[in-house]
Amino acid sequence: MELATIDIVIFVVFLVAVIAIGLWKSRGETDSEDYFLAGRGLNWWLIGFSLIAANISAEQFVGMSGAAAKDSIGLAVASYEWCAAITLVVVAFCFLPTFLRSGIFTIPQFLEHRFDHASRTVMSLLMVIILAGVTITAVIYMGAKALNPLFEDLGIMELSWIVGIAAAVYVAAGGLKACAWADLIQGTALIAGGAVIMVLSFMALDKPADFEGTNAVATINTSLDVSETATVGEKFASLKEQKMHMALPRTSTFLPWTALLLGIWIPNFYYWGLNQYIMQRTLGAKGLADGQKGVVFAAGMKLIIPFIVCVPGIIAFTLYSDKMAESAMDSPQLNGPVMERFEATKANPASDPMLIPYDADFVELHPQLALDITKFNAAVGDVAVPAAEEGQTVVDVNDAVIKAAVDENKELGKVKTQTLIGYDYDNAFPLLIRYLTPQGLRGFVVAALMGAVISSLASMLNAASTIFTMDIYREWFHKNASQKRLIWVGRICVPICVVIGCVIAPKLADPKFAGAFAYIQEFQGFVSPGILTIFLFGLFVPWAPRICGVLGLILSPIIYGALFFGAPDIAFLNRMAITVGAIAAILLIVTLIKPLKEPIKLPEQTKIPMHSSKGALVVGVIVCIATVALYVVFW
Q: What does DSSP assign to residue 42?
């Protein structure tokens, strides 16, 4: 798809204006508090929009939209948003007062006050690794993925570098205040652009023949099980019945209903209450009341996000499943290279031995090809194709062949290819932009999405540089560093993190990661259970000894890693719940054996007012009630 001149003009003007306003507002930064925390002067409305803009980017519009497009997930992925609304309310009144009162720059800094210096250092290192290797990487990839249909001459690798460099220049020039003011504009534009895509999606669902690229009308009606004369309301009702349920089976490896009891709250509280790049906005509040109002404002906005992200993703699969199948087969990041090798060597498997797994969607779309691949795998491993046992699928049989081949020859495990997939689900939202938006509007939507990607990356890069500068560099290398030196060290960290992210990002196209959204959630699981558990002990168990800090952080990757490799069939949210339970039990035993003789007194700052907001509390209760109502409607 080509961008018209008007689209390019709108795209460029929007991005230049947003960046210019952010940098203008952040001029005059003279010390680390100005650069990293916006001088602790952010208003509630700026905090609220900044929280949403820092959070909502390609991760949602590409990753979450793509997850919603899957038949096995659908609207259930919205739990990450709706549970976040309740989480934010709790953070505003249970976490934030303690953090602001102590006057910390970073979340790891709290651990030094409550536990010891070692726990601060360990968490700082873990956070920098997760930010650079997981969240920054994933957002760069999803930003490139979102732009790929618009710039087809450029690959994911080239677009990743463009996205990463743009964010690096922006955040290195200005600090948190630049991010916050840019977020205000981009958050508004992103929600508006998402709402426009949602409206256009419903229009296309109503009259698909009026829009380019959609599946045949008969195919759409058949998939929805509606008549030719069905109204858009009847079509949506059918989609609601098929895919818009919040409860997935207990056997789901993505989000089983059991995870709603505990598992999903772990990444939510970690992300919204203990994640530096999110909490940095609230740590920069000009007072506790403004911080609470801003967080509750963001909680209210979280309720509408699934309607402009997940629902369009669900509709996108109905309209463009054929396009998603084509993208999966032809993409050089997905099936393309594997299929080329297979076609070149299938007559003589020994000439280029490889083992090829595939998923259920691939079997449904290409049944004969799947059978040929299974026979090919058997020939490579010199094993027989077993008869399917009761309850086994074609995928199970192919996996059994691959396992038998590797058992016969361990070296074959090294030539196993990436999994062939039926649909490129991450292409759901980009397809909506490509085929539904008219000229002019397309430029605005792309600019809003690109701006959001840069905004989120800027927030993550600013957080990573803050943690490295304040918790690692200043603490371990130069305790008496000048304010100017600290700002420059923070700026130097930015391009290093970008290079790491841009190098790793293209690899996320590999289906073994199950989509970029799942990649973020899965790999944060190595650290988030431990971080959440020690903070809960630090905040609410005053007699927990200092050793609990380091102990919980070290146990987290060990326990989660054992479950990750030893029990991969357990949903990752349930693995998180098990990890939290195990760590909490161990820390409780340690506390009972060797409790503190008296609670630790945390430092108290006097720079900002610490009176709570009663109005924010009332609105927070309303948000929680509305969240429960949404679950009742869509359960």
A: B
